[in-house]
Amino acid sequence: MMPDNLALLRLMQLTSANLPVGGFTYSQGLEWAVEAGWVADDLAFSRWQRLSLANTLTAVDWPLLIRLYKACEQQDSTAFAHWAELLLASRETGELRSEERQRGKALARLITEWDDLPLSGHWLTSLSSCQLAGIAWLGWHWRIPLPALAMGYGYNWLEGSVMAGLKLVPFGQQKAQQLLLTLSPLLPAAYRQALDLSDEAIGGSFVLQAIASACHETQYSRLFRS
Fold first, then answer.
1. What is the rounded CA–CA span in Å between residue 44 and residue 32?
2. Which of 132, 139, 153, 187 lies at a C-alpha separation of 20 to 30 Å from 104?
3. Which residues form a coiled coil (predicted)?
């Protein structure tokens, strides 16, 4: 099912990298990985992103987005809180958890400023805990079909990562566009894998990213918050 024009516009607003909850101020460990020599060029960056896609987006973020969205459909605030808590617990370092909370609080503040949104208090704690909860809730409220919401979220994740790589590796705008062209076709198949995951199978670990994120917390000179 394709989103209608207004839902499509809302999807573009929700996943825009220019929003306060966009991904430009975060490297998710990439900054330390570059300094350590793990990611030294665009080919190494592409390998890094493929690992992140498999172990984070496919194994954690998308399966939980699916469940958060369905909890909204069923108006099940208990399930919604459970999946939001699991998402936060799946962030492997203090830096990654702090990033998730910051994104969640920023989006929750935005939501509470929109008077026409019927947000009751018992949902707000979950919305404030992680960005993914707010994206799922708004996607459901704005009638954005789940597959379109997931693709928008996935592309935003990929674009933010490529922009971080452009600044850190570094590579130019043309190479950044080529990376987006090469990596984005991986998203639909990865989403289909996420759809098939059972509750018990949710979870992944990109060990190098976790190490890099932990080291980044004390990195002497850095451009990115995480």
1. 14
2. 187
3. none
